[in-house]
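Repro:
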Amino acid sequence: MAFEGLTEKLSAAFKRLRGKGRLTEKDVRDAMREVRLALLEADVSYKVVKDFVAAVTERCVGTDVLDSLTPAQQVVKIVNEELTQLMGGSAAKLSMAPSGPTVVMMVGLQGAGKTTTTAKLAGLLRKQNGRRPLLVACDVYRPAAIEQLRVVGGQLNLPVFEEGQGNPVKIAEHALKEAKNHGYDLLFLDTAGRLHIDAELMDELKRMKQAVRPQEILLVVDAMTGQDAVNAATAFDDALGIDGVILTKLDGDARGGAALSVRAATGKPVKFVGTGEKLDMIEPFYPDRMASRILGMGDMLSLIEKAEAAYDEKQAAKLEAKLRKNQFTLQDYYEQLRQMRNMGSLSSLLGMLPGQLGRQLQDANIDEKQFSRTEAIIQSMTMEERQNPQILGASRKRRIAAGCGQEVSDVNRLLKQFEMLQQLTRQMTGRGGRVPAGRGGGRMHGFGRKKRLK
């Protein structure tokens, strides 16, 4: 997970300040030495680290502790504010055209995930803002690039405009006319990339920019390349003039230095981040929320937003009525599991919880494959069996196990866990307790833990 090492090192540095009544210059400089090393190890550029530490030190030296804060909390508060400013201060939104379709040029080097990210972003904006996006295949050089855009566009039910191996600039112009004629209000140009930055690539992108005059030029960079991502952002901005950056594979970079360096190095904001391989795993970049994650404070706002996005209010009301009447079935359990999985990977959700609890749960390495096994078992049942699991005898269990590739013992384990869940909900409703369906109505059983919490 991004910033994992940095979070641990910063937490260790702040621990040393506990118990002090006033922040002396030596206290601050000792802590800032640890912060500086932690940031450098996270692959943040030296100049950015130097300026950041100087700004924090200036604010912290001799600072009186507020009545409600300990010295350690005061330093964390200042570091949090400075980290937020370092990453841009506030979330940067896309510029939209006042009339006609908004044109977004997606640029970047090969291997950064540009084509997939183009479809992800279009899907996000359609879902959140009700937009009508059109994807345009302007990468006519990379083998199978057009087919890849077709595939990811098809998976998200997004239209794709393509004219084969033609002139990319002309394709962009024709796509713009298509968008105007058919009412598409967002045009995403998936442009060509190279393994390195060269004059030929930049010349083509400049001609495309001049031809369609995009409202946004977004650079897609791989967060795992660290300072190379920052160097690419600087080069593209100097040559083309980008409007923002999308960081991909942020979930796979335990250091996260690129997210901290891009804004300071280029002056261009990070607007979106890719948080996983699935096509819905992209989200707006919020500097304040990311700063809270880095400092181990969690990100409850993002967690709540994910829950609300996956939350079906009508289904929840229906489920609550069933819980009140003790009519909770395996089919309801299955639907709750699916709704929970729609929020994203469990490890990423646990990482949004604040404090030591979130880190401990994240380190517990919960076996998410057990979700899939549980779903497979329930899917192998008939609807009658899901509604009335008490009819499941030995022969039915053998059929279910064979149908999902599991053992009979796995089926028995699920039924036992479901029985415990039913008992729990009966106890809660028996005492007149209100069970909030859809938002944790009952404890979710059925997923294993690979190692115990420390």
